[in-house]
User: Which sequence fits this backbone?
């Protein structure tokens, strides 16, 4: 059977997809949290910058972000490997959504928490790091899972930009064996599920573990 | 490490510690603080009372700049309140605050609630901060709850932890913003007992409250507010037995009748 015969190639693609997703998830989580903090900062220019980023990136199709990285950036003398461009495009794009999730999490923490932190003499940064964000992140775990599941699937856009990830390889294989094309793409779909389903389960466990009674 | 609050050498009682001078505040058109002049001496316990909406909570919160003011000045130990930033954070570390809603850090244990400020703001060693925190928790009677989370404690216990948290910073003055208003009646006493003890130890306190019993036992002075103004100031005895203004007579008549 063609799917089984192609397992090594599919697994290579799976590995690349997994790496794209994990690296972009971590980078987007860090960048998105920083942006979220900027959006609630007492310094207006930081707030504006955060808002501008979110509005610009969130409202741009991911394909266009990739297009910019792969075709426009080289004209500005920014020449990157295709794989690197894909990491950046996915991270930059996903960070906008993480930022909004983090911001809604911050808004869900009662103002009394931040006031108590200010009253013991914490600076804005300490307040955010030690009191507000730890509580905010707990409440947005389900939203973050949604974002990371979307990221996993979004990573397939990289296939159109010269990265041989799971979907791209699957498509090539399907075209080469038209008779087994459907089976091949089903195999690809299953491999995506192998990433997304466990991450959902894991997140649910994490959510229960860090839950705080209010 | 600095010495515990109760052993700290104090400047002479009577020297002004918190001074409000011509303080005004507006919420849009609403004039919530009207020309407030108030001086609280070191070691003094000032009880602020008045009807709802009289501005007493706003006054209390303005003292550590959780509320900004329109004009006038507020200074603490001779230092005017700075703008938001590092200097203000430093000053707030010296001003303990106890909230109506307790506001314990929900994701931290009771012990961590008390040590967080000393470790992160005062840069104390963890072991020192914990030792001092346990002493304070014992003093307010919740020492055995140190490893629990706030939500596992009763309101009265949470408020006593909140007092311990403020004391751990070794503040120059403690602000209480209606500390017993969110409590069931049987828990009010346990919190007031801690506050009375604190007053006896010489802590400078500004207490916004409806507890007239506390004002009589522990207060050095009662400040009566109405419509954003300080209407009357007197010793508790004088104020309760012989109020001067009609507004105060009316207020006392309403609350003391039942």
Assistant:
């Amino acid at each position: 059977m063609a799917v089984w015969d192609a397992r090594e190639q599919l697994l290579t693609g799976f590995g690349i997809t997994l790496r794209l997703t994990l690296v972009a998830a971590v980078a987007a989580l860090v960048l998105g949290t920083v942006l979220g903090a900027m959006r609630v900062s007492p310094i207006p220019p930081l707030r504006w910058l955060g808002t501008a980023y979110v509005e610009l990136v969130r409202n741009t199709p991911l394909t266009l972000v990739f297009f910019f990285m792969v075709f426009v950036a080289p004209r500005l003398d920014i020449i990157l490997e295709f794989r690197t461009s894909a990491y950046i495009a996915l991270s930059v794009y996903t960070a906008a959504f993480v930022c909004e999730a983090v911001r809604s999490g911050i808004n869900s923490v009662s103002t009394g928490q931040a006031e108590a932190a200010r009253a013991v003499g914490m600076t804005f940064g300490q307040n955010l790091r030690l009191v507000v964000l730890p509580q905010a992140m707990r409440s947005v775990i389900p939203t973050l899972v949604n974002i990371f599941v979307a990221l996993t699937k979004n990573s397939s856009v990289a296939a159109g930009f010269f990265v041989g990830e799971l979907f791209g390889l699957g498509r090539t294989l399907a075209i080469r064996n038209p008779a087994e094309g459907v089976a091949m793409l089903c195999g690809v779909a299953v491999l995506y599920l192998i990433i997304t389903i466990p991450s959902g389960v894991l997140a649910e466990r994490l959510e229960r573990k860090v839950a705080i009674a209010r | 490490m600095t010495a515990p609050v109760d052993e700290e050498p104090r400047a002479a009682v009577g020297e002004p510690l918190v001074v409000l001078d011509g303080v005004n505040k507006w919420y849009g058109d609403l004039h919530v603080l009207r020309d407030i002049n108030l001086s609280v001496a070191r070691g003094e316990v000032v009880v602020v009372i008045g009807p709802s909406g009289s501005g007493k909570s706003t006054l209390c919160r303005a003292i550590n700049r959780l509320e900004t003011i329109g004009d006038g000045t507020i200074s603490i130990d001779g230092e005017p309140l700075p703008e938001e930033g590092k200097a203000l954070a430093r000053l707030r570390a010296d001003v303990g605050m106890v909230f109506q809603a307790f506001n314990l850090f929900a994701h931290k244990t009771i012990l961590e609630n008390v040590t967080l400020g000393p470790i992160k703001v005062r840069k104390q060693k963890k072991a020192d901060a914990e030792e001092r925190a346990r002493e304070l928790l014992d003093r307010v009677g919740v020492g055995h709850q140190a490893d629990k989370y706030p939500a596992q404690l009763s309101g009265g216990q949470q408020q006593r932890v909140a007092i311990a948290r403020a004391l751990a910073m070794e503040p120059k003055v403690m602000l209480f913003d209606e500390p017993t208003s969110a409590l069931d009646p049987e828990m009010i006493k346990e919190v007031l007992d801690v506050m009375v003890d604190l007053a006896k130890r010489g802590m400078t306190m500004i207490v916004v409250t409806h507890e007239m019993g506390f004002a009589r036992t522990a207060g050095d002075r009662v400040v009566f507010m109405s419509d954003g103004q300080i209407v009357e100031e007197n010793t508790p005895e004088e104020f309760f037995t012989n109020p001067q203004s009609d507004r105060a007579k009316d207020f006392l008549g309403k609350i003391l009748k039942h």
Q: What stands out?
A: Chain A has one domain: 2-213. The CA atoms of residues 7 and 187 of chain A lie 9 Å apart. The mean pLDDT of chain A is 89.
